[in-house]
Design goal:
The chain is of the alpha/beta class and 394 residues long. It folds into two domains: 275 residues, Aminopeptidase; 109 residues, Alpha-Beta Plaits. The protein is built from ten helices and 16 strands. The strands form four sheets. Strands 1-2-4-3-5-16-6-15 form an eight-stranded mixed beta sheet, with helices on both faces. The radius of gyration is 24 Å and the shape is elongated.
């Protein structure tokens, strides 16, 4: 029985996958600098006899062809990069690189896909068609490694009918996975604003044009973009996380610098909102005697899970794990560059549970104490192999 064969293989290689994950975790590299990581992945593919090519400098694409006749192709994706975070975990595989940590689980994704590749290599006689293994760089940094891989042809020659990715989720218990069909994750745009005025003594405001006050009005007013101008049926977030007004208790500065993020799940509204924010901020600054430089850098698009594919993949997950282990997900306003794949191909991006409250493994991603219950690696490797073979068979 296919399910049992895969489950047995996932159990057999579990310790090896754990060792791979711990090696990657201890040796993290930042976005687009994953040279040692890519070399390590390449060595593992060489061991398995899987042909591959490099893309986007530090990305790799491998191919596994089944023995049965079929032209079907499915792609599986993992990401390689880490984050500029200093790890606070006291574990044997703690990051050896000061200020860099696998705090978003990309070590899990990569080790899992290598484990899946190992399982698929042993089961070539069970399927026909081709599995494309995508190990991409730079998920955490614009313009996103996915966009570069697509430009270099990762979804061509052979062209996959679908692409599937998984991502750690510390809100879900290890052993479980989560799915959402349709729109799932938000677009992520970066906002940079410089408000200019005329600085001077804080005791004589009538002689100055106060950029701090102008910036405050802009921050408050821009929230109307979300609360009054956006269709309330469209998820939308506007947040400012950096405000620099380098004056003093009695010094009004010449300018104020702001940084923020805008996120939504509708491309038409996204473009309209950019125009409205810029016009509003510049208008407020001008009306108050100052000026405003308003810059928006387009980030990742929103991520959409194609409904038919997602229903298929979810059904395979229920077959492999049992229905009670498969959970529903809500909209998630974080961003992911897997969204680029979802904009040009049928795509399914699901969540891998990694939480274990008994072991104290509960920290969110992008924190210094993020970690996983490594029994999740047995689920991640086997499930993705099962999904790939079942999909190719249908």
């Amino acid at each position: 029985m296919l399910k049992q064969k895969i489950a047995d293989l996932a159990t057999a290689i579990h310790n090896e996958v754990v060792a791979t994950r711990q090696h990657l975790h201890a040796n993290p590299e930042l976005s687009f600098h994953e040279t040692r990581t890519a070399a390590f992945v390449a060595s593992k593919l060489d061991e398995l006899g899987i042909p591959y090519q490099t893309m986007a400098n530090t990305g790799l694409v491998g191919l596994i062809k089944g023995d049965k006749p079929s032209e079907a192709v499915v792609a599986l994706r993992a990401d390689l990069d880490a984050l500029p975070i200093n790890e606070a975990n006291n574990v044997p595989y703690k990051s050896k690189v000061e200020g860099i940590m696998h705090a978003c689980g990309h070590d899990v994704h990569t080790s899992s896909l290598l484990g899946t590749a190992q399982i698929l290599s042993k089961l070539k006689n069970e399927f026909g068609g081709t599995v494309k293994l995508i190990f991409q760089p730079g998920e955490e940094k614009l313009p996103g490694g996915a966009s570069l891989m697509i430009k270099e042809g990762v979804l061509e020659s052979p062209k996959p009918a679908a692409i599937i990715g998984q991502h750690v989720m510390p809100l879900i218990e290890a052993g479980k996975v989560g799915f959402r069909s349709g729109k799932y994750m938000a677009s992520t745009d970066e906002i940079y604003v410089t408000v200019r005025g005329k600085g001077g003594h804080g005791a004589q405001p009538q002689q100055n044009i106060d950029p701090v006050l102008i910036a405050a009005h802009i921050i408050v007013a821009l929230q109307q973009i979300v609360s009054r101008l956006a269709d309330p049926r469209i998820p939308c977030v506007l947040s400012f996380g950096k405000v620099i007004a380098n004056g003093a208790t009695n010094v009004i500065p010449n300018d104020v610098y702001l940084e923020g993020t805008f996120r939504t799940l509708d491309e038409v509204w996204r473009k309209q909102a950019h125009e409205k924010m810029k016009k509003m901020a510049e208008g407020i600054a001008e009306a108050m005697g100052g000026s405003c430089e308003f810059k928006i850098i387009n980030g990742y698009p929103f991520l959409v899970n194609e409904e038919k594919l997602t229903a298929q993949v979810r059904a395979y997950a229920e077959e492999y794990l049992g229905k009670e282990q498969v959970k529903d997900l809500d909209i998630w306003m974080a961003g992911e560059d897997f969204a680029y794949y979802s904009q040009v191909s049928d795509a399914c991006f699901y969540r891998l549970g990694t939480r274990n409250e008994t072991l104290g493994i509960t920290s969110a991603v992008h924190t210094p104490t993020f970690n996983i219950d490594e029994k999740a690696l047995q689920v991640s490797t086997g499930l993705m192999a099962y999904i790939a073979i079942r999909y190719l068979g249908n």
